[in-house]
Amino acid sequence: MTTNDAGGLRERKKVATREALSTAALRLALERGIDNVRVDDIADAAGVSPRTYNNYFASREQAIVAAVTTERAMRIAAALRARPEEEPLADAVVAAMVEQYGGEPAVDAFTLITSSPRLRAAFIDTVASIRQPLTSAIADRLDDHESMVPAVLAAAVSAAARVALENWARPSDEGSLGEKGFLVVTAERSLPDLMREALSPLTPALTAAEEAR
Question: 56 by DSSP, 3-state: which?
């Protein structure tokens, strides 16, 4: 086995372990409720040690949320790179974001996430992970790998997406308790619509950066 093959195998094992942990965390939280799930339970269900768990997640909330947000950051960057070259940057960014945030989690997972302040916070915090991959994709599109412009634009997109998520994944004052005791939340507007609205103020900055090339 070559060094590259060994490195590739290690990475695949890491990905598989992370997925096993996040899947187990979500399943146990749905079955028992988040307050009745321990790190030891998640590790045991995934067939690893608690020490191994701590190498991947800092909290059970991170593990649970990862089950519905895995690899989204890289998919957003890939979606932006796949947009037509002649498409305006602002339109391409919105399309890439809406494409990847267009599907809501499964109903049970959505109910669980929105019923817990800690899970909502962890879910919203995942948007920060899009900044670095998005910076690279914007830099490629602008052919600008020297200035701070791509990083600033990516940070602005990330902040706007966070606002959209905060407005989407929030508890309703008139929520009702579901069969498992979770607060059932019904978003008043779709996440794609909220994402478009949150990103719209960034159009002038994205357009100006493209015209300055």
Answer: coil
pLDDT of residue 1: 53
Residue 66 CA to residue 18 CA, distance in Å, equals: 9
Domain ranges of the chain: 1-68, 71-213
Tell me the DSSP string of 102-141. SSPPPHHHHHHHHH-HHHHHHHHHGGGGGHHHHHHHHHHH
List pLDDT tens digits, range 14-24.
Answer: 888 988 999 99
Is residue 9 exposed (0-12), middle (13-18) or buried (19+ Cβ within 10 Å)? exposed
CATH code linked to domain 71-213: 1.10.357.10
Q: Is the pLDDT of residue 186 over 70?
A: no
CATH code linked to domain 1-68: 1.10.357.10
